[in-house]
Amino acid sequence: MQERIERSRAGQVVLTLLMVLIAAAVIAWNLPAGAPRDRLRPTAGHVLLPVGLDQDWSLFAPDPRSFSVGAYARVFMANGEVRLWTPPRGGPILAPYRDYRWQKYVERLRADEYAGLWEPTARWVARQQEGSVRRVELVRTFRLAIRPGDTDVRPARQSFTFFTLDLP
Amino acid sequence: MTRIWRGWADWAFRPVDPAPMAALRIAVGVLALGWTLSLLPDAATFLGDEGVSPELPVGGGGAWVLPTSAPYAVLALLGVAAVALVAGLATRVASVAVFLLLLVVQRRDPFVLNSGDLLLRHLAFFVALMPAGEVWSLDARRRSRPPRDRAPWALRLLQLQVSAIYLFAVWAKVRGTTWNDGTAVGIAWQLEDLQRIALPAAVRDSLTLSALASYGTLAVEAALVVGLWLPRLRWAVMAAGVGLHLGIDATMLVGWFSAAILASYLAFVPAPALRSALAHGARMAPRARGSRGSRSGPEGNGTRPTRVGLPWQPERMRPLLLVNSAAGSADDEAIEVVRGVLDAEVARCEGPEDLEAALDRPGDRLLVICGGDGSLHTIVQALHTRGQLARDLALVPLGTGNDFARTLEIDLDPRAAALAARDGQPRRLDLLVDDQGQVVVNVLHAGVGAVAADRAEKLKGRLGIAAYVVGAVQAGISRARWRLLVEVDGTVLHDGPVLQAGIANGRTIGGGTPFAPEADPSDGLLDVVVSVATGPLARLGYAAALRQGSQAERSDVGATRGTTVTITARSTTELNADGELSTLKRGQSRTWRLEPGAWSLRTTSSGA
C-alpha cells in the first residue's frame, strides 16, 4: 500500500505537500522570539501539536540560565518533628536518566507560572511521610552564577518559602 | 520545472537501501525501552491520579492529553511495543504504538520533560512513517519475498529535522550575549541543578576553557547543519558531534538527549557502512564466544551456507549489485530487473566511501557491477588497490557507451546480462596498470579522443550515446595535433605529432567505435594504435575509417602489440582511461604494463 502511494505521481505530490507543510511549521515554530513568530505559531501549532512535533530547539539559548535553582520541602509533623524532603538525586550509574525528570520538575515547580503544581506537590510530599503531618512548606533556592574568569567570591545560595499547606 | 520535480522525486522517492531506516528503528526501540524503564520508579508520582500533578495539564499541551490512571499498565504497553520495535515484529503497529504511547505519557506530565524526551518522540514519529521493518527484522524473515529498496521520504524528513535542530540551536545562541563573549558554557557548568559531576573550580571558572568550549560548541553545531549532508565532511562532523554530545552527557544532567540526538545521526550513515558494521559485529561475535566453528559458509563445495539465526546473515551470500548512483545512467527499472533475476542486494554508491563500505561486506558473494566503463573502471581500481582482484565479478552494462561489455559480447539487455551473470563462467582478463598504480580496463587514449570524451561527458545527460559523435566532431574541428613519444616494449613506435594514440585492452571506444578491432582482453598482449592524421582531410578520412574499423589500413596509422608502453608528452596532452580524464603535462611520461589474466569477469563464453 505505502509503496504504491510512493510510486504514483499523485502519491508523491501528496507526500511532498506533507513534507513541505511539516518543514514550514517547524521553521515557523522555531523562529526567534518576535512578532513574526507570535503571528505564525498558532497556525504552526495546528500542524505540530497533533503529531507531537512541537518543540523549541533553542537549547541553552539565547543564553544559559544565570542561576542555579532548587526546591525542597519542610515537613512539620504533628509530634513536633520537622523533616526535610528533597527530590531524589544520584544513585547507580543509570540514575541520571531518572534524575533529570526531577530536575525539570523542580525547575518548573519553583516558578510562579506553575503555581498550580504547588498544592498537589505539597499534598504528595505529605502523603510520603509516615505519621501525621501538620504543615508542609515548599522552599525554593537559587544561587547566582558568576562570569567565568571573574575573581569574585561565588554568591551564597538563597532560599525562600514560597508555599505553605496547613493540614487539619 | 520538470527538472526540479525530477530532482526532488529522485531525492525523496527513488527507492534506496532501507538499512538506515532499520537501524533507526532498532535505536529508537532501544531508547524507548530504556526511557520506559527509567520512568518506572516515578510512574505513579508523575502520571498517577495521586501524584504531584493529579490534574490533566491545560494550555499548550496540545492533542493527546489523556488520563493515565493506570500508569504501570501504560508503561508496560510501551515497553512491549518498544521490544517489538527492536525486533521488527509487526513493525508498523509497534512503531505507531511507541510513538502514540510516548506522546500520551509525555502529554500527561509535560513538567518533567526535557528536549531529549521530545526528540525521542520526534524520532518515533518519523520511524512510524518509514518502512523500518524491511530488513533486519522478524517481519523480513517471515516474508516470502526478498527485501526491497524503499522510498526514503520519511528518512529525508528526519534528516531535515536533525539539520533544523542544529540550525535553530546556533541561530538562537548567536543572538545571545554569553555565546558571543565565550562565557556561556562556563556559566552552564556552574548550574548546580544541571551538574552530573561537579567540575574542579580551575575548570569551571576558567574563562579560557569556557570560551574554547562555547565557541567550539557553536562551530560543531554549525558544521553539523551542512556537514552531515556532504559525504566528504560527514564522518568528521559526525565524530565532532559525538564528542560534543558525549562531553555534555558526561558533565550535565541532560537525560536522554545525547543518546537521542546521536541515534538521529544514523539517518545520515550510508547503508553500506551500516551493513559493513553489522557484518563486522557478526564476525566478531563468534570470536568473542570462542566458537571458531560457528560461522557458516561454503567450505569449498559451493553450497549455500546454513542459517545461524542472525537476521542479516542469510543476506551475506546473496549477490551484491554495485550501482553508481552518481553516474545517473543506471535506471531503476533495470536495476529492479537485475535484482529480481539474481535475488541480489543492492549497494548504491554515491562516492568512494560507499564503494569501500560495500566492498567491505563479508562473504564470497558475487559482485555485479551495474554500470558502464566508468563504473567498471572505478570498481576494478578499488579491488586492485585492495588486492582483491580475485573476487567473483559480473557486469550488467547499464552505462552510456558500454564498450568493454561490447568487447566481451555481454548482452546489453539487463535481463539477459543478469542471466549471464548468474549462469556464466569466469573469464580471465588482462589489466593495464601504470607506474602510479592506476588501472585501465578497456582503453587508454590520448589526443583527439580524450578531448572528444571530455566534450561528450558534458552532453551525455542530454544526448545519450549520440554525445560521443557530437563530442568527436567538436574535438576534431577544434584541435588537431599533440606531440608524443610512444615506446612499446622499449622500442620507439612514434615520436612526433599525433591526432590520437591509444593502448587498448578492449576493442571499442565512444559507444562502439572500433578503435582496436583485433584487440583481445585475454591474449596477454595490449594493442597500441597511433594516428598521425593531423591534416584536415586526413582527419576526415581517419574519422570515416575509424567508424568502419579499417583505420589500420591507412598509411598514417601505426599499430603494434606489446606488454609495456611508455608515452612521453612533448606537448601537454589529455588522457582518457576508461572515461577517466587526466592530463600528461609537457615533459612528463607514464608507463603502462600489462598484467595478464589479473582479474576475471563472468561471461557466457570463456574467451579466446
Can you give a write-up of this model?
The complex is a heterodimer of chains A (168) and B (608). With 168 residues, chain A is of the alpha+beta class. Chain A is 39% helix and 21% strand. Chain A has helices at 2-7, 9-29, 35-48, 96-109, 118-127; strands at residues 67-77, 82-85, 133-144, 158-166. In chain A, strand 1 and strand 2 (82-85) form a beta hairpin. Chain A starts with a helix and ends with a strand. Chain B has 608 residues and is of the alpha+beta class. In chain B, helix 18 (373-386) links the parallel strand 3 and strand 4. Residues 291-316 of chain B have low confidence and may be disordered. At the A-B interface, helix 1, helix 2, strand 1, helix 4 and helix 5 of A face helix 1, helix 2, helix 5, helix 6 and helix 8 of B.
Structural class of chain B: alpha+beta
Helix count of chain B equals 23
Q: How many strands in all of chain A?
A: 4
Radius of gyration of chain A (CA) equals 24 Å
Helix content of chain A: 25-40%
Cα separation of the termini of chain B: 51 Å
What string, H for helix and E for strand, traces the elements of chain A in order?
Answer: HHHEEHHEE
Uncertain segments of chain A are: none
Whole-number mean pLDDT of chain B: 85
Pair with the most extensive interface? A-B, 69 and 81 residues
Strand order across the largest sheet of chain B: 6-5-18-15-8-9
Quaternary state of the chains? heterodimer
Poorly predicted runs of chain B? 291-316
Question: Span between N and C termini of chain A?
Answer: 63 Å
Shape of chain A: elongated
